Fold this protein.
Amino acid sequence: MAAIAHSGFREPNLLMKMASRPTAMAGLLVLVVMIALSLLAPLISPYDPAQLAVRNRLLPPSWQHLFGTDDLGRDIFTRVLYSGRTSIAVGFAVVIFSSIVGVFLGLMAGFFRKLDAPVSRLIDAMMAFPDILLAIALVAALGASATNVVIALGVVYAPRLARVVRASTLVIRELPYVEAARALGVPTPVTLVRHVLRNVTSPLLVQATFIFANAILAEAGLSFLGVGISPDIPTWGTMISVGRQYMEQAPWIMWFPGGAIILAVLSLQLMGDGLRDFLDPRLAKDV
Amino acid sequence: MVRSALNRILGMLVVMALVVTIVFVIVRVTPGDPAAVMLGPDATPADIESLRERLGLNASIPEQFAVYVGGIMRGDFGQSIFLNMPVTEALLQRTEPTFFLTIFSLLIATLIALPVGILSAYWRGSIFDQAATTLAMFAASIPSFWLGLVLMQVFAVQLGWFDASGYGGPGASFAERMRHLVLPAVTLGLISSALITRFTRASMLDVLNDDYVRTARSKGMSEPRVVVRHALKNALIPILTVIGLTAALLISGAIVTETVYGLPGVGSLIVSAVLRRDYPLIQGALLVVAGLYVLVNFIIDMLYLAIDPRVRY
């Protein structure tokens, strides 16, 4: 995991390179602003996200309530900000979890010839399950909670990362410096971490960005279906799920959390696209 | 080529066996007693015991696995606890809306994605290309259930062009039932078009610089002919692959979309199975859907093998 954080800043001019891609930079900027807004929510909004004010229920957007109010009179702008914490945190946790599992499986399959076939077939089999279907089955088996949603989505996305890591590892395994390390008697685990993992980080980072985006979408989908995080915990998904019942009288209840999801996912995709353009090329083309 | 085909068949069987095992692990080997979970907190120990007996949970794990695999071999996917009918029958009853929803969404997605993707690649870097690429990325960022709700609000609630939900009720004619699929199919079609557009564009870009395209041009062939007859023909294989895999993955979209629009399809059946903890039904649905995906993948690979002599497995 250190790998991901690490690789982002190992190349000193990553930010500079990103700046040359205005769309990627815009994505990064929007995401940073969204994270900042959700963390600073108590300073930004005068309202309490859970405060009930039945007299103010179902008010349309106005200067008092930028995004209007929901069925219990709670300020939607405030709730979108606070929900961002959970939605983004869940997405990030999924990235961490699936990266740990995916990197491990990918390195094993890519580096050790004997493990390649069994691990690769396992990855193929896992990828045969559509993401939402596998996730709801896992949550059904494990029980619905935020932790289990992270585990379920982590399991769903780990094979995709494993596939990318395996492909890169297959190439790196044959490079002279890995051979040199082997000849010098460097222990295999050290070679794996120091020489292979480090050079896998670029494609990994790209893929992780897309998984972050997918995880936010999937979490919202699970919450909407009622098989994810409890509706009492505000996330963008649960907000839409609740707002659905008031679609006719107060459509804004679901507009704004939906807009927040689109904005977050779009910025992550723009970042991923930009990162791929200058981080991935060599390895991606070789495989 | 025969060797390659045999290799691929063997590979597919291994993946199928793994799929069967993974489903067993998810449904049976997870912590907690499925019988207790299914019956809820008010169940008496006697109730739980009798359900455990009925589900065969009292046997050892290897024994349960043997019974489970034996059942699948015979095409027996077990009995739905809640619906009290064979899982296969429960799934088959719900196939129609899902089948047509998938066909229509794919049709909509392809009709948008093919021309847009081709023109994007042809006019690479133009305003059109940038707008199309951005729009595709935007479409891929929209949660399908949210788009479904927004379309429902506009076209059903406000404009009243379509019914907001359902499948026409009992006795509805075929045309009536299909009318209920319009909004769900547009929802899913718009979102899936994003992926297919990106693939079409990438795949066309690959071939547009190839020698035979240049040759065709230098022979004085008209541009539309070059693009369609020479470039598209060669770009079509990867594009068809994506369309095929999208079809198999649309079940994910169907799960959400059918729930939004209250369609009695396989997707909404799976959601209610999960909410009711109907484990045999969940198990059967997982097997059928993942099995279909592996099969579609296999068929595509076999087609490759037949079409392109360079392909080897």
Summary: The two ends of chain B are 9 Å apart (CA to CA). Chain B has a mean pLDDT of 84.
